[in-house]
Amino acid sequence: MHRNFGKYLKPAILAGAFIFMAGVSFSAQKAPEPPKETTPPYERGEALGTIINPHEQINDAGEILWGTCTVCHKQIPDIKKEHSIKDVQLHFEDNPNEICTRCHLVKKHPGTEGASVTMSGYAAPDHLVVPSSAIATNMRISLKDVPTILPLDPKSGKIICATCHNPHERGLLTGRADWGADFTMRLRSAGLDICQYCHRK
Ligand code: HEC
Ligand code: HEC
Ligand code: HEC
Ligand code: HEC
User: Fold this and answer.
1) What is the overall mean pLDDT for the chain?
2) How far apart are CA 39 and CA 24, in angstroms?
């Protein structure tokens, strides 16, 4: 009810603001340049605006919000006993990325940006694959240097969204699984160059 009402209310306000702004630009003689349109690299799913953030797993009082776990987990994990993607039961049919794409409509990434890859006709590489042996070796070396995890789909061996993104709130899990939690874009980089984890030079 509320939401629908808002839908009709907003255009009315916007229309009002527009008329007001048109008046202003008249008196200033020259209309201001409209802001340059920037295309965000990713669309945000409609669901994002309407639901609670499932990555918020600890409240201000420091209590764990166990209810949020079941957005992605079939049952609430025992954080004392479960220490791997193999230990937990996640909510999906065949593809673990479904957990994320329910809310996040992302284009193929990363690797869509940067000088070498913006040439016309360049297709972003599919990262959700079984890593080649060269990449797998790099991942093993990186895991010696960096105290993180790079979980793969235990069934298919493929890279998944959670290989690079930490879905948990900082402080929920301990040790390696906490690395990168709540970092920018939830990347398991925690400030390091995440590309280098797998593409070492
Ligand atoms: C937004 C989705 C999402 C939510 C919400 C979520 N998890 Fe997870 N969780 C995952 C995914 C995906 C994995 C597998 C990848 C990994 O290990 O991080 C995982 C793995 C885990 C693991 C194994 C970690 C390890 O060491 O590899 C534990 C423990 C866990 N979750 C506990 C929890 C608890 C407790 C909650 C609720 C307070 C929770 N999770 C909420 C997605 C989620
Ligand atoms: C129930 C919906 C939901 C699910 C499921 C979910 N997320 Fe999110 N996610 C959100 C919301 C809400 C935010 C906060 C968005 C914002 O602040 O713009 C968010 C934020 C993020 C961000 C940070 C985006 C930014 O712009 O900084 C990343 C990355 C992310 N989620 C990855 C994941 C991954 C990976 C999974 C699956 C393991 C997942 N999410 C599952 C709703 C969800
Ligand atoms: C190989 C690592 C990797 C994998 C796999 C990956 N991402 Fe990302 N993701 C990144 C990086 C790096 C960024 C930062 C922007 C960029 O470089 O494209 C990012 C950005 C994002 C953002 C933030 C976009 C924004 O501006 O709001 C979201 C959300 C996201 N990824 C979700 C996902 C989901 C969902 C999947 C699985 C379908 C996924 N990612 C798989 C590395 C990865
Ligand atoms: C978790 C490991 C992982 C991470 C992190 C990662 N990649 Fe990749 N990347 C791969 C895999 C796997 C392939 C597929 C080719 C292969 O298996 O050798 C690939 C392929 C590519 C390709 C196609 C060309 C090539 O080398 O085959 C580009 C470009 C690329 N990645 C860019 C990036 C960028 C940019 C980042 C950081 C934002 C990044 N990748 C992070 C694993 C990763």
Assistant:
1) 80
2) 28
Q: What is the DSSP letter of 107?
A: -
Can you tell me the distance from the alpha carbon of 134 to that of 141, in angstroms, rounded to the nearest whole number? 11
pLDDT band, very low/low/confident/very high, at 62 (cuts 50, 70, 90): very high
- Of 68, 75, 72, 73, whose CA–CA distance to 53 is shortest? 68
Tell me how far the alpha carbon of residue 159 lies from the centroid of ligand 4, in angstroms. 10
Summarize pLDDT for 65-119 with one digit per residue, the tens. 999 999 999 999 999 999 999 999 999 999 999 999 999 999 889 986 544 444 5
- Structural domain boundaries enclosing 87: 2-198
Domain total of the chain: 1
| 86 Cα to the center of ligand 3, angstroms | 22
Cβ of residue 160 lying under 6 Å from some atom of ligand 1 = no
